């Protein structure tokens, strides 16, 4: 889930990152959006984005009606078979904290109940590869780790830490997952991971009362977003709450602008460092982002306030204070619901959502997620991967909110409200047509380290949005170092 997205940065990026220091750090991460239009199979993520927005703002599918499971779903009442593991002790590491960790613990409790094993959750720190390296060097690796970056999975395989998935977990993957999500969990054709959690990183959540007080509607384009921000600011409510203390949120801002403006081909090239960060397309995206970041009155607390705001606070301060919150909008994924639940606001009533506005021809859709990987060749580790690849596990956490699964066998009725349900439906309907979080594809030294690499360069850019050339130079220098030239 970056999480970066976290859920998922889904590490998922919800409450799934730990604080790394004054201008770095913090919680969070994790994918999906828009409510499906009419024909599920031909949908692109961009189309899904618009449809999802309608569902989320109340023009939905009839509220909380329980939907039929998608094709291929596990029949009701059927549960994945797990081995009995009496007396076995397992450790599971993830960069998750707060409600996200608590909700995942409920999944682990069910695994304990079914197998007789004892599972301990081990809070990890970013970058998780460094954390795991320390544990492995000390002779105490966790049995399973949930990694927030594709780059982290590649590093774990390169270092020979990761174990290939066993036949039982592979069977669950084959039955329940699309090819795109399976490929993300594979390295050089070998399946190592199970994408347990996904995140839609292209959503902007807003305070319905603040929008009503200012007389504005959800924007569909970047130009309209700036106009709405200007109206909100003039009404006395800053437009956006930016979690600048957590650098991963800034990478998500950049990626959405870049994907929509530069297009998917350039996005893929930049993700692989096949083009440099000094490319003119990066200049255009940073200049566009600077139109928002450069307006002190648009940001809750201005640039300095944004740089001291961590992800959980960026959400909660948007949904407290009635029609006069600290800000009217907050950008991040579906997992924001976990943090909204810490306020008095109700998702679907006080807290609504719209797709990230189109900067170019199409609105962007960026996904993230957390991949579960076995680090020990044990029966218990493989059993846990099998469980996490089943709909059984995902449905437990889905009921708690702030969670979306890429598992197509999950019953949509497990999601607690129409917003989460439609995000999940859109994710499944999109099939393999999505772009994964760019920073999560990068080496951890560039795309996943608090206070360093892309995170720090974009924090410096938030502090001084007029210095586009300087930001590009820093980004390229850090990328060249991380990618090896």
Automatic annotation (TrEMBL):
Transport in keyword set: yes
Gene3D superfamilies in alphabetical order: Periplasmic binding protein-like II (3.40.190.10)
Xref: Pfam families: SBP_bac_1 (PF01547)
Biased composition (Basic residues): 31-42
Annotated keywords: Transport
Record-linked PANTHER family: ARABINOSE-BINDING PROTEIN-RELATED, OSMOPROTECTIVE COMPOUNDS-BINDING PROTEIN GGTB
Protein's recorded name: ABC transporter substrate-binding protein
UniProt organism field: Streptomyces goshikiensis
Lineage, top ranks: Bacteria, Bacillati, Actinomycetota, Actinomycetes, Kitasatosporales
